## 1
Amino acid sequence: MDFSYTILIPLIPLALFVILGLFSKKIPASIAGWFGSFGLGTSFVLSLYTAYHYFLEGKLNGVYQTFIYKQTWLVFTDKLHIDLGVMIDPISVMMMVVVTTVSFMVHIYSRGYMHGDDGYTRFFAYLALFSFSMLGLVLATNLFQMYIFWELVGASSFLLIGYYYTKPSAVAAAKKAFIVTRFADLGFLIGILLISYYTGTFDFQELTNPEGMLITSWASYSFMGLSVFTWGLILIFMGGVGKSAMLPFHIWLPDAMEGPTPVSALIHAATMVVAGVYLVARLFPAYYFVEGGFALQIVAYVGAISSLVAALIAVTQTDIKRVLAFSTMSQIGYMMLALGVSKYEGHEGLGYMASMFHLFTHAMFKALLFLGAGSVIHAVHSNYMKDMGSLRKYMPITHITFLIAALSIAGFPGFAGFFSKDEILVAAFESNKLIYYSSVLVAGLTAFYMFRLYFGIFWGEDTKYKHTPHESPLTMTIPLIFLAFMSIFGGYIPFSQFVTADLTPFTAHLDLPLAAIASSVGIIGIIIAFIFYKKPNELPQKFANAFGVVYKFIYNKLYFDELYIFVTKKILFGIVAFSASWFDKNVVDSSMIGIGNVTVSVSNKIKGMQSGKLQDYAMSFVGGIVVIAMVVFYIWIN
Amino acid sequence: MIAGISIYEILTLTSILFFIGIYGFFTRDNLITVLMAVELILNAAAVNFVIINTYLYPDLIQGAVYSIFIIALAAAETALAIAIIINLYRIIYSVEVKDTETMKY
């Protein structure tokens, strides 16, 4: 079996980026949109073909094989070298399908959404750059290659958040996203260096090999009571926390909603933000075996806490895109905790499979929610729920698809989210009761805030619109319909046959009692939302008042932004930066200025030597020759 | 080999020629005469080549060949220098050395 053609899947978007980026002024907007969609469509078809081929024939004795095609790039020592290449295994193939599907849909959608925008071609160039980087990240064969593409997706995310660069808030959001994730990536880099220093390899296959150096000899090196490898894995996870917007590095994600909505759907819902989950899944055997899974415990708790906090905040927000942003954070927390509670072998590895399954279904329904929200924003030109209401009359397709996505994320029986969420809850139930209870609570909250959003947008009172809203053009509704289809039927894919921790397929069953609990909690959430928001009434305000301080605390996102501003402004800028700048001004600068002054005064003294008189120069020339001749004579005589 | 004249006399002559050239180069005010002084220096060197060849290595020919090279070189150099001087004259209407002192710090 030969999968070397998969290298084309990331290279097509790269070529698109180069062409669209270099000739953005010359290519007419209409062609750029078609061109980008067509290129991504090719990648999409190729990755579907790869998935079909791999999942059908990739097994040897019932175990999925890993195919690696790579080229050595930088050599440090014989063992330690950086390769570039593609790695084909179940999770990378699965992610490839997710990325190309959502990216393709977003390309088609953007042709309608961005219609008439000034930077239309530039937008498609950035989208192509992002698709290339994300696919490179997914297909990476080693940690370092992943890190390179990890930074590339960060950069393209920066470019796309700041796409409306004339808007100060968008620029600030882009900077915030870049700096926060970059800070987290510092941990990632240190983790990579630590692990590669001790194991002498970057290679994923070496690192996750159960007989490999990392897993067998973690006990040999310790630092502050923990294995050095555990520290390394925790630091690597820190990078994942930043990219996946988990606590405490989540502050960039809500602001990132300043970008165009298709970008939010592609980057900040379906693909880039799950890179952290993908990273942990990629190194899962290492997380699981090193020091009895200590680092994995941290993953589980970070995921659980993030999902709960984000769900709570989502309940109070009024900007529809921010609700979706916090919802994304909460669902990624789900994936993280599923990985965290997972074990390795066979049916025990349910959490791993559930996490990947949820990643897949979440990508579909969350992209759909964002694209639906984009369609609504396109129609009413506002992000705020107060400007919306009764839209079901004007936008039937958006309404139906949004409802499907909302039912799916709420875990309504029969929809995709129901199946994947159920697997996560089963995995949590089998391993950690505390996390299980919090997850059930989150499931209820999810259903509540999602239907709060749904009723607020599509029902409620008929707002007086300046222009009568109308349904979006076909190019925007087709992706909605496709993703709605996936949000229903994506759940019927037997994921445990394809993606497992130990690469061996098993059969997962629906755990009926747990599923019943979860979906009834979800339905209760929907009913509460129905009572509160179906018709405008006093109840929500009363509840908000009843909780008073707590409500205000949550509404302000637990004051995380203020905390960060305090730390950066007062402590970093006020104390650390102040003393650093004093040192810089008085010691570093003045010594440099001193050297400069000495040079200037010396040159003032001696510049008269360059008189411009031809015969003076000749005189010094002849004088020099005479001196040299005398020296040579002197040596020759002796 | 010139009867009755030894190599020392000729070398003395060329040395005098050489230093006249150096002196002229340093003291002349006019660029053309400076150029002539350079020619004197070159000619002193060329004569030295020929004389040393004739007196010390009579069966070789390189010295004479080199003197021809020097003459050709001098011709080329003079052509170039004259061209520069003419252009200079077109710009500043002078070929005095003291008028060309503007290229300095």
Note: The radius of gyration of chain A is 29 Å.
## 2
Amino acid sequence: MLFITAFWTVDPFTGDVVRDFSLDNFRTLWEQDVYRRITLRTVGLAAAVTVTDALLALPIAYYMARVASPRTRGILVVAILTPLWASYLVKVYAWRIVLAGQGPLNWALAPFGLEGPGYTTTGTWLVFTYLWLPFMILPVYAGLERIPNSLLEASSDLGARGLGTFRRVVFPLAFPAIVAGSIFTFSLTLGDYITPQVVGNTNFIGNVVYTNVGVANNLPFAAAFATVPVLIMIVYLALARRAGAFESI
Amino acid sequence: MSRVLLRLATVATLFFIYFPLALIGLYAFNASITQGWPIESYTTAWFGEAWRDEQVRDALWMSVKAAVLATAIALALGTLASLGVARYRFFGRETISFLVILPIALPGIVTGMALNATYVRFGIDFGLLTIVIGHATFCIVLVYNNVVARLRRTSPNLEEASSDLGADSWQTFRYVTFPQLRTALLAGGLLAFGLSFDEVIVTTFTAGAEQTLPIWIFTNLARPQQLPIINVVALAVIALSIIPVWLAQRLSADPTAAGGAAGAAATARQ
């Protein structure tokens, strides 16, 4: 239904949906600079969030999988999982408080003469990173846990230091798991419109789709733009499959 | 040395994950109507205020109704789908498991749009029914995942033995299959309830003029005089969504197993 709607158009005078096949919506998307910029901005943000999450997830996942005792590990898994279920909107709202002008972040940074990002794209990036972090930690943890100890021992027997072992042995083996986590962080960022609206100041694909459904009442155009993240995800999933990520979800 | 660093990083990450949630807990007791930091004085007055607010109560009631109905549909359809996929081989079996999982792999805005377009096309009025259908699409997968995982661990021999002993298929389900699935169903149902209770994105496309609790929060964010009440409601929503999940995790023997399904399914809330 969604894909069929994308080919319809809205009559500019009556505002009614014209149910004829047409590529007008996709032509608008392709030819207008604004939409190309918004698409690039959204993909860029999704990529930035994914990379930050991977960097944040590796140490804690490594600690859980390799250092912690089984008991601590169990507690940590539950500790990471539980906030996933705390309402998404409430978490975004919590960040609205944190980033507020008179909020805790600015208060904590003030003694150092710094200022928080406030409600900007940097703020949006920070909040997305926060929201999807558990989706990255869990697969990476599962991936690291599967690495046999013998490989790490072999690496140090052959003279590799901690960092060398990490770079040459652990990271390549954990890479499929990171890609598996990135599927979540990437697709979730692509489709979101609430976070940019609450803690940001620019539009992303989701915002444009949302306004076109509601305010502008141009369902066909919204449907056409909504196919863009779907196409991006299909390409991304195909790449992820080649990286062996599907065994790691 | 590197161990100490790892431990520090772990503690820092946990702090990063938990401090915004803790903050909500503090702000719910903030006496001032402006939401500055540090909080100067504390009060419990906003809890009563929130409870007396008619809109909040209507939204809460709507959320509960939608979550209960969506969970019921998810339990029925999710169990049927998982029994079919796990116990029988038939043409299109792979397709069914793919179709059930699809709504959690798609961005929520796409699911919402698709539902919205379908409702408009067929002239279905927005209301409780459309919210419930929307929630059920992604709740089914939670029940499905939990039940399929359980069915893989239980042997079909028991069911065969039951029919060898002369039970008809309903009796076999009632006395043999169902007791084995009970905790998996309960866990899946609780997860579905928690997820439905929080959902925003799909709901904004399917609710029309009705308000669920998360939608109420979303529409009132821009009104400064409502913020103290939002703080209280936010705290209540955290409690109401975490408690069922905590129960679900305790019910399933392996907490990480429920977690895996949970993690994947939490995608749906977006």
Note: The radius of gyration of chain B is 22 Å.
